[in-house]
Automatic annotation (TrEMBL):
EC number annotated for this UniProt entry: 3.4.23.-
Organism: Micromonospora reichwaldensis
Family of this protein: Belongs to the peptidase A24 family.
A Pfam family hit: Peptidase_A24
Enzyme class per UniProt: hydrolase
Phylogenetic classification of the source organism: Bacteria, Bacillati, Actinomycetota, Actinomycetes, Micromonosporales
Transmembrane regions listed in the UniProt entry: 83-109, 129-147, 154-177, 197-224, 231-249
MF-aspect GO terms: hydrolase activity
Protein name: A24 family peptidase
PANTHER family the UniProt entry points to: PREPILIN LEADER PEPTIDASE_N-METHYLTRANSFERASE-RELATED (PTHR30487:SF0), TYPE 4 PREPILIN-LIKE PROTEINS LEADER PEPTIDE-PROCESSING ENZYME (PTHR30487)
Gene3D superfamilies given in the database record: 1.20.120.1220
InterPro entries documented for this protein: Peptidase_A24A_bac, Prepilin_IV_endopep_pep, Prepilin_peptidase/N-MTase
Amino acid sequence: MAEPTAPKVAARGARLLAVLALAPALRLAVIRHAVPPGVATRTGCDACGAPVGLARPWPALGPTARCGRCGARVGPPPGTVELALAAAVGVLVLLGPPAAVLVATAWWLGWAIPLVLVDAAVCRLPDRLTWPAAAGTWLLLGLAALAGAGPAPWLRATVAGVALALFFATTTLLLGRRGFGLGDAKLALGVGALLGWYGWAVPVAGLVLALLLSGAVGVALLAARRVGWRSHLPFGPFLVLGALAALVLL
């Protein structure tokens, strides 16, 4: 097998750096929205109040995730956003979809990363992140349909997204706090649309994998006495991981 030439290696390195350049914006989204419901979005360091933003991203929005004034940790743990971005690139490489579908998948992943980290931190999925994720994915898949894929996969994606969202919303209406949250239903709109593009079995597999993952983690945490029987685990991370597993496996 021929080894990659220097220009190809340089091009791949440039693309990877371009992707990693998104990390500060994603980390800022987590910092802003990882607050309890009803609390205003975070604008700076909790310890000293130093403002955090894209105008002055370092070091608070860098991999070290430290305030430039007091050195306190800001936002998600160091390296987590960058690691998630690298994993997202790996998923896109494994999937290798056509360019139009690749854009839709990349769009969804770009919103899924902060959603997972916010939900893991404060057990909420903000509308400012779930709605753009779902709407953008649906519209970009529509463009993929116009680009040559045809209407069938896009219509299937639309129905799958709505059906998955209704499933989560119904559990909330019927079971209250014992069911899934409405944030999960909004996240499921984008998840269902993306998975539904590939076939009817894929969103079903994604949901089943998400439920199995959450159950396994819940049992492990119970065994370790980290949670109680009435503890609430955020389901958003499991839904995203289940979706990614279904895409890669199927």
